[in-house]
Amino acid sequence: MEWYDVEVPASDGYKLPTRVYKHKSAVSTPDSPLPIFDYFHGGGFLFGTLKTEDYFCVRVVETLYNQGTPCVLVNSIYRHTPDHKFPRVYQDGIDAFEYVATNPKIFLGHDLHKTSPIPRIVVGGISAGGGISTAISINELERSRAEGDANRISGAWLTIPIVMSLPEYPAEYITPGKSSYDQPDCAENVAGLSKATIEYFTDILISDTSMLDHKWLSPMLVDPEHLKGFPPCSFQICGADPLRDGALVLAQNLKEKAGVDVVEVVVYNGLPHAYWGMNIELECSKKFYNDTVRILQKLL
Questions:
Q1: Inter-axis angle of helices 54-66 and 283-299, to 10 degrees?
Q2: Which H or E run contains 140?
Q3: Residue 110 CA to chain centroid, in angstroms?
Q4: What is the rounded distance in angstroms from the CA atom of residue 83 to the CA atom of residue 5?
């Protein structure tokens, strides 16, 4: 495995710490550039470093290579709360994607000529990173429409994403005792992520509560008509997770109302938020990684 660190410029001049991973035997050429997986970490917008993501990134890149889908993985660390608020945290993700999309040769390790195929770029992330990846996908959809240009995102890997701000969760989706924000084994799940923890993360992320229904924070509220043209996407969702229902509703809206190619929706029944990080040797954790690789093979 090969990796190296670079700095990716944000739109305000800040340099985002970034690590690039590639299997040492994977070959990218101008005539056959490797696909790029632009990855964003979880951690409630509060936690996460290059080092904390090494295991996931190395395991995914190595397994993809061994199964015939070599790629380059780019992991940029967006700025965190409480020092940085919305929308800056999300804007860092958008800026990172923009830099990757406009400068692929930096990450592929070679120039591209005029007749080179455009490298495929999949954006994706876990939890907070899944929410940021959803916002990146919406932003790119809007850019491509406004500029009459092709969407540069080939796929979106959305895993346990936060796609709905809790205080703005529509009442029609809250069934007492059944909603993931109300169901005790989800809302009070101290093993993974609780409703109280989400409220804390939201409080330190948002300084202006009028923005809680912003399309980046709450894409579940976006009119599905506006989401037509969203890239092919996938959802991996934990069954005992307060974020469960938001992801399920967004997946349904994208597939049934916006006509988006939702390539797969996997629900890990009875398991808490990001359970695979608690013990990587459990069979259910191995299943998560196997599912991740299989789904990324569809998207890349």
A1: 60
A2: helix 128-147
A3: 26
A4: 24
Residue in the structure block whose two tokens are 């995102």: 153
In this prediction, residue 190 carries a pLDDT of: 65
Residue 92: which of 4, 16, 33 has the closest Cα? 16
Domain locations along the chain? 2-299
pLDDT tens digits for 234-278?
999 999 999 999 999 999 999 999 999 999 999 999 999 999 999
Whether this model's pTM surpasses 0.90: yes
Q: Which residues of 97-136 are buried (b: 16+ CB within 10 A; e: fewer)?
A: bbbbbeebeebbbeebeeebeebbbbbbbbbbbbbbbbbb
Stretches in the chain below the pLDDT threshold 70: 189-190
Helix (H, G, I), strand (E, B) or coil at 285: helix
Tell me which residue of 34, 39, 33, 119 sits closest to 72, measured CA to CA: 34
Considering only the top CATH level, what class is 2-299?
Answer: alpha beta
